[in-house]
Amino acid sequence: MRKASPDPQIEARRREPVPETVDPAIEALVHDVIGKVADKWTMLILEALHDHGTLRFTQLGKAVGRISQKMLTQTLRQMEKDGLVRRTVHPVIPPHVDYTLTPLGESLGAAFCGVWIWAETHHAEIQRARASFAEREAATSRLMASD
Amino acid sequence: MRKASPDPQIEARRREPVPETVDPAIEALVHDVIGKVADKWTMLILEALHDHGTLRFTQLGKAVGRISQKMLTQTLRQMEKDGLVRRTVHPVIPPHVDYTLTPLGESLGAAFCGVWIWAETHHAEIQRARASFAEREAATSRLMASD
DNA sequence: ATTTATACGCACCAAATGGAGAGTGTAGGA
DNA sequence: TCCTACACTCTCCATTTGGTGCGTATAAAT
């Protein structure tokens, strides 16, 4: 059942190089930014602040869901470094700290909006895709077993 | 210089609960999807396939940049499970495997488009923000030292 | 006098992530 | 006859991530 004869179409694509479209320097920068930003906690905090406007530390933690204080602090610091959030300390006792998005963070939140909407729209499809993948996998292993 | 008297505005926000806006069940689902998808390699592979259409394994690796074979395989498998990519095996020797986005993956790529554009537009701002954060940090530590 | 509330910092530990390098199977070319 | 191409898989190892629990300062409430 093995097809070992070379398909001419495939053969044609054999030594075809990777088509380049954009400047590699820009690519590197964008990849770096994506690397920093494409993090679960960053995205979730971004969403929470985008939705609620201004939140305090513990409120933010509850809004995000199951995040540890450590990760919350860590991610917020990184986001502050990147200029995405503004941290306001009110020198009262007990301490009171407010977090809010900067215009830059706000614009990123807006850019991510499409992704939230996608997730809300398509999560059912993903679940179906997973089920059918599991199905195919099971079928394959049945084939292997009867080999 | 410490202001310990309670600010009435802050006091008012003291026991204010986190404002809830959406159904927590939907939230949980979306967070789950985001958790799966908000991964550096997933986003980069998604971008590469969105740009180039169909790519083979090694081409894809080069298009993404510095990714190890292990991560490439692993991430592709996950994306296949989630129904984002279609994997086509041509039974020839040497092996030939094509990867392409499914309609679902294509729609996610479109949703992420806004984020690529954001990254391209704002990476200079991020770098400036980082510099000014470092500046402020240095100023703070100078203050601490002269304390 | 004791507790509570807040926003952390720190130390320790487990688990996940990710990279490097070697191995695999086989047809066709040097 | 040996080498190369391709798309992996596997093992070993280092780094990173993330959680838990404890400590802290201090005013107000009990």
TrEMBL record, chains A, B:
<keyword id="KW-0805">Transcription regulation</keyword>
<dbReference type="InterPro" id="IPR036388">
    <property type="entry name" value="WH-like_DNA-bd_sf"/>
</dbReference>
<feature type="domain" description="HTH hxlR-type">
    <location>
        <begin position="23"/>
        <end position="127"/>
    </location>
</feature>
<protein>
    <submittedName>
        <fullName>Helix-turn-helix transcriptional regulator</fullName>
    </submittedName>
</protein>
<dbReference type="InterPro" id="IPR011991">
    <property type="entry name" value="ArsR-like_HTH"/>
</dbReference>
<dbReference type="InterPro" id="IPR036390">
    <property type="entry name" value="WH_DNA-bd_sf"/>
</dbReference>
<dbReference type="InterPro" id="IPR002577">
    <property type="entry name" value="HTH_HxlR"/>
</dbReference>
<dbReference type="Pfam" id="PF01638">
    <property type="entry name" value="HxlR"/>
</dbReference>
<keyword id="KW-0804">Transcription</keyword>
<keyword id="KW-0238">DNA-binding</keyword>
